[in-house]
Amino acid sequence: MRRKSNKNGQTAEAAFPRTTVLGALYPDRPWDKWKLEDREVREIAAFVHGLSKEHRKKLIWACNHHLHRAWGKMDTSQRIVLVKLLLGLLPESGVIIKNWILAAPILSPAEIHFTLFCHLDQIVTFPQGVGLAAEVPAILRQYLLSVKSTSGNAAWMAADLLGGHWRTSVAAPILLEVAENARHRAARSAAIHGASELLARLSPQKSGAVRLMLCRRAKRDRSADVRAAARVALLISDSGNVVRARTARSL
Prior knowledge:
Elements: H1 12-15, H2 18-23, H3 31-34, H4 41-49, H5 53-70, H6 76-88, H7 94-102, H8 110-119, H9 130-146, H10 154-165, H11 168-181, H12 185-199, H13 208-220, H14 224-250
């Protein structure tokens, strides 16, 4: 039977050779049957927790190696598996994860950033991830202040991670700073989206600073796209407040 190839003519095993990287290293663990791309990061962390320190080190190296070597030749599910494995292998993989996020774009593609940002919120759900979780806000702040493009929707997802999933008291100052001070339009626009997500989680009494920022960006930002995004965020917030007020009156 002929193996399926991806659009680059590579088999899945060539892009991410589970049989050699995972199966050969750890024959007692049913990697192929476990469907890692469908598992929560905390489940993967529990799955690899029993490996020896040396085996964990080898697995971190293998994941990092294949992300570097074949990121443009693998499909989305393969990228998700590698990223989730790295997250599940915390705390030893922490330096590599930070390097992927903060490295120059040529070394760290936006698609990998996007996948990391999709799953980083899960590291608070298992003990080995708590250490990196404490650093995530500062890492995302540095990333957003330096990001230059909308490639791969990575900046959008970084701001979404803060505004929609992180503690509001931590996320708010970062999103406000990026929206007001980031040099590049992509970063400010992403922060506007994050602020919109944040408003949905804040009570009207605590949303004043965020709304003031959106009003300023809607009027004064040098980018028409950012001004438009801020206006839309305000409209969404206003409509949500109306719905909540009507619901409260009906109770």
